[in-house]
Amino acid sequence: MDAEQFRALTDKATVLLESIDLEHYYGGFCLADEAIGSLGKALLSATPEQRAEFSAALSEHSRRVLGRFMLRAPMLALRARDGSVLGEGLIVAAVLEQRVRDWRDDLVAFAPYYYAAQNVGLSPAELFDQAARFAVPELATTMRRFGQRRDVTLGAFGWRRIETPDGPTLEMLGLKGQRTGAVVGSPSWDSINEAMVRELLQWIESQPGRKRSDQA
Known about the structure:
By secondary structure, this protein is mainly alpha-helical. Helix content is 57%, strand content 8%. β2 and β3 (179-183) form a beta hairpin.
């Protein structure tokens, strides 16, 4: 990605991410998920230095929005029976985490991806290996090793699956396995500025060799 493309993507992404209301970014698949997933795929064409620059420039709000998408991705994959969003979520994780602070936190965050990949017929090892190509070396090693494990369950990493009228979702458990109420899904929301999302998606599609349908 050349410097002009990168700057345009960064500017459009910043406006979009800052516009998302975290208090309502829950529930089923919405335009925000489509936009952030496409942003993640677009960043595959960026250089490692550009991805680091993108991450460093993010505001705390934008980082929380991307973190929310990362949490949502396994739920969205389970509901849609489609694993493409898992790759997008892990790419977002790779962009956000330019320095590993606590690898144990990463394992907790990655466990729903491992579980969802198995449930939609994907190889966890392949899923994490593909995302690791775009991560900093320390995180890449953690991703690859985690994807190769054979002992990963939701419960072992502090999660449980919940069935709701809208489909499956996930809840993070407390230190002693107690329910916390920190559920990934809630009533559907889709009040994001549609014109803004469409502008970002159209710009991504217009770039040479980049399509929203590309797999991460």
